[in-house]
Specification:
The N and C termini lie far apart (50 Å). The protein has one domain: Lipoprotein like domain (Double Stranded RNA Binding Domain, 2-Layer Sandwich), CATH 3.30.160.150. Helix 2 crosses helix 3. The radius of gyration is 21 Å and the shape is flat. Strand 4 and strand 5 form a beta hairpin. It has three helices and five strands, in the order H-E-H-E-E-E-E-H. Helix content is 34%, strand content 36%. It has a five-stranded mixed beta sheet, covered by helices on one side.
């Protein structure tokens, strides 16, 4: 009996506090067909294209049929040393991802060029170089998806 009541009580409590799943961002009808400019082989470009498509936008490479344009002006990522050991070998790195973009709808700039940067540190072990290189690639992809989600939220906040 308690096993049946616990999920029902939890659902009722969550519904009562106003909790709801985030779901997919609702974009303005102006983003029905969107040109996504920039280097299409980067992590960010792929993540933003997927996010736009999930929100109902048709992403195209260019052309006059597009109603909106998201132009990626800069898409940069890398890593830098955060700390070193007493023997002057790196022990911690920071992965960064920076994107500069702007948005136009119908030839009118609705979001001026903006810069978004995300960083995340990770420890480095020189005995596990391949594993740490893989970790760096995973972090870079995660940062790109975070920035794509931020851009999509800003697009969803634009008036119709």
């Amino acid at each position: 009996m308690k096993r049946l009541l616990a999920p029902v009580a939890l659902a009722a409590a969550l519904a009562g506090c106003g909790f709801h799943l985030q779901g997919v961002a609702k974009l303005s009808p102006a983003f029905a067909t969107t040109v996504l400019g920039g280097d299409r082989y980067t992590d960010f470009h792929g993540a933003l294209a997927d996010a736009l498509a999930a929100s109902g936008s048709r992403v195209v490479g260019g052309g006059s049929e597009a109603t909106a344009e998201v132009e990626v002006l800069t898409d940069d990522s890398g890593q830098r040393v955060l700390s070193v050991s007493a023997s002057n070998t790196p022990t911690e790195y920071e992965v960064y991802y920076t994107v500069r973009y702007r948005v136009r709808i119908g030839g009118r700039e609705v979001i001026a060029p903006q810069i978004l940067t995300r960083t995340q540190g990770y420890s480095f072990d020189e005995t596990a170089v391949l594993a740490k290189e893989h970790e760096q690639l995973l972090i870079r992809g995660s940062l790109a998806r975070e920035i794509a989600a931020l851009v999509l939220r800003r697009l969803a906040a634009l008036p119709p």
